[in-house]
Design a protein that fits this description.
This protein is an alpha/beta fold. It has a single domain, classed as Rossmann fold (3-Layer(aba) Sandwich). It is built from seven helices and seven strands; from the N terminus they run βααβαββαβαβαβα. It has a seven-stranded mixed beta sheet with strand order 4-3-2-1-5-6-7. Strand 3 and strand 4 form a beta hairpin.
Amino acid sequence: MFVSKYCYNSNIIKQERVLVLIDGSNFFFKLKDLGLHKLLKFDFSKFAKYLTKSNKIVNSFYYIGRVRQDGTKKADRMVADQQKLFSRLKKHNYKYVLGYLLKSDGVYHEKGVDVQIAIDIVVATYEDICDRIILVSSDTDLLPAIKKAQQKGKIVEYVGFSHMPSVAMVSRCKESRLITKDEVESFIEKR
């Protein structure tokens, strides 16, 4: 009996191309609820690797509203902190995508971010940039883009937080993962 010295395993799992999209405001406030909103100590690289497992990360995006100067000390502090966050994201190979913050009656509201995330989901789908989109956002405004991506054969994986999951996102995304406080703590640098 002849046995080839080359074995071919037909069960080899193809490495997926993965796009990581984080809704920054949504992410920050979920972490804040847990008392873990230390973004300047968050290891975004480790988090992306954890989410994507052994798959290939084609890109990682963090969406956030740009803080503007308005002459107040609070705005000065917020701008300085945001610049530090941008540096940290760059260090961890994330690209940041900016919306804007609208101040109304002394309260800031983020604008343009959800639309940009939805556009990026659709573009990634139609330009075949990835096989899987990992979406860290509980914003149900993204559901039409998610539906279209999934109709076109992309896997959209919702990553939410176990203390405040989005039932709609869990039910409409092909895959879901709810991370716990302990998991989040593992991505915060201790020093």
